[in-house]
Amino acid sequence: MITQMQNDILDTAQAMAQSRGFNGFSFRDLAAAVGIKPASIHYYFPTKGELGAALASRYTGRLVEILGDPSDGRLDALMARYIAVFRATLQDDGRMCLCGLMAAELDALPEAMQTEVARFVEANVSWVAAVLRAGTGLADGVEVRARARAIFAALEGAMLVARGSRDVAAFDAMVEVFTASGLIPNAKRVSEGQF
Amino acid sequence: MITQMQNDILDTAQAMAQSRGFNGFSFRDLAAAVGIKPASIHYYFPTKGELGAALASRYTGRLVEILGDPSDGRLDALMARYIAVFRATLQDDGRMCLCGLMAAELDALPEAMQTEVARFVEANVSWVAAVLRAGTGLADGVEVRARARAIFAALEGAMLVARGSRDVAAFDAMVEVFTASGLIPNAKRVSEGQF
DNA sequence: GTCTATAATTTGATAGAC
DNA sequence: GTCTATCAAATTATAGAC
Fold it and tell me: Is 60 exceeded by the pLDDT of residue B188?
């Protein structure tokens, strides 16, 4: 069971981690922003590593929930939904993807967090791969997962780069290039048999 | 003038920053790895922020030097050289791009470092854009820079994702998808007029 | 230039009152 | 549950001997 206070703490911690990195904020910063004392944070999350693992776990869970069934809808609608998730994160105070950022600092994180980051990556790759299979009729196998991984990576990179310029338009422009080049499939190309 | 000791310190600091993030190592860690005392680090770099700015600046300078003239060579050779720079970083003990990682933790870095990160991004985008102009005959303008930015972002994302699996082959597979899809141009496609 | 010594602050974390 | 009080360790940084 997740309490309201746990959620408040996680919300605030997530915002800080997404803008400063997991090692870029302290329990004191976090407590001050939430409006409680550092010792109270420890009551809910004994160690910072456990807080971080909970952060990443919730993040992945929410993504899976938002994305939903990868076979429910047309290819372009599903991809648009996927892209919208990344875009919304970036638009929300210029945040980087939480797990993308954790992947960057990976060696500085406790093992439990590293595992959660890997789960996030896998959730993305498997969902996009499922969309590609259902929407394009591509055969199963490494090839589809390789393409899914490339799409995921490109969007993570676009977030990373766009964050610097503090402009969501930069992200949109990169996504447009990904789509126009054929990396990210769209309905038009599929109907034309180019994908 | 850059002394030998300054270079040793920067080399070690760079390796640590690339695997743990800039906030993931201390002057104590750094000094121990170099084989000197923390106070001696301060002699060369008064503050950690100045060390970080020097790190990013040297990193960008080396990139520019390695890449060379963007109009000297064929399109596919130039792009191959560009990709090889990222690949070499990843292969070298599984490191993430220094400035890509700094871009992730951006809000936690002093302003001087943020400026250097922006310079790195600009160096990449302008070099790739120049290659695209010379090699594909594309007109100048926002469009070429948008494509260059997308290519840079995709490679940064590929490094980020590949680092998790500790396998350079994952990076190669993503680059292959980028190339096959047409995001990263190659000579064959250009000669066929598809780009 | 490199060190010892140390300051001043911050950090993650615990004990125990309420 | 939340707090005060506190800890031990780590952090960036400085002063000054050698």
Answer: no
